[in-house]
User: Fold this.
Amino acid sequence: MAATADPYTILMVDRGADDAQIRSAFRRLIGRWHPDIAPEADAAARAAEIIAAYRTLSHPERRRQHDRRRTADPVPPGAERRQGERRKATIAIAGRPHRSNAARVAIDMGWAAAALTIVCVALSPDLLEWQRAKRTAMLVAQARPAVVIR
Assistant:
């Protein structure tokens, strides 16, 4: 089955078709296009498309994934899914340009740095006092008496 082929179109069923309708359409079409029965040269390729479409629609999870993919990111007719220009294009989402994961991480790191700076400024008097106490403690520990009394 081609990347842009729609299994609903291949089996000629509606998107809301139930399992019985899908099975009936599959049996009707495979009976018509089976390579042992059909005289056409492209019967084997057509039968393979029908079988692939039936496998997609008969399995509930694959059908759900296919429907989700079609509604979320429709592919224009005649276009392949992995086109270079299409992947490089800036996609506008809610009026903002699409950002890569690296850009999102950099923005998040920037916000984290800003938040850390604000916390440090708010706590700076306490930090300065702590540094003074630590420095005093180090000076006292390093001081040696000049005369040892025994």
